[in-house]
Amino acid sequence: MYSEIVMDHFRNPRNVGHMENADGVGQVGNPKCGDIMKIYLKIKDELIEDVKFETFGCGSAIASSSMATELIKGKSIHEAVELTNKAVIEALGGLPPVKVHCSVLAEQAVKSALYDYAQKTNKVIKGLENYKAEDDEIHCQQ
């Protein structure tokens, strides 16, 4: 049902934890199904030097969070904003259809944190022009 990569990122999540003085923080989720993700970014010269996450949710949500942080760490903010849920799914070796919303959650958490950074620094990040914080509630399948 789950790939070895998903199981590894669930059992041994990368970049988990809280970050003090983060340059960008994003939180997304849906309290109804229990998946909530928070991403913290440390950015220097438009490069993501460090990234942490805190996720309350199922194993797929934790694995998606972990993989998303791995995919953006060391990248520029312009590369990170292009992260898609499909890229997260591919990197994890797939997710069951009922768990795809977890990868969407990861994508949106990254965008939310980048948006927060852009707001704090008055930067324009291409790809976030139409971003709205109210889009941060992800609908999950029950």
Blueprint (SSEs and pairs):
Layout: H1 4-11, E1 24-30, E2 35-44, E3 47-56, H2 59-72, H3 77-80, H4 85-92, H5 100-121
Antiparallel strand pairs: 1-2, 2-3
Helix pairs in contact: 1-2, 2-4, 2-5, 4-5
Q: Approximately what portion of the residues adopt beta-strand conformation?
A: 15-25%
CATH architecture type: Alpha-Beta Complex
Write down the oligomeric state: single chain
Q: Alpha-carbon distance between the termini?
A: 18 Å
Number of helices: 5
Low-confidence stretches: none
The structural domain count equals 1
The helical percent reads 25-40%
Anisotropy-based shape = globular
Q: Widest sheet: strand order?
A: 1-2-3
Describe the model.
- The protein is of the alpha+beta class and 142 residues long.
- Helix content is 39%, strand content 19%.
- It has helices at 4-11, 59-72, 77-80, 85-92, 100-121; strands at 24-30, 35-44, 47-56.
- A three-stranded antiparallel beta sheet has the order 1-2-3.
- The protein is built from five helices and three strands, in the order αβββαααα.
- A hairpin with a 4-residue loop joins β1 (24-30) and β2.
- α4 (85-92) packs across α5.
- It has one domain: Sufe protein. Chain: A.
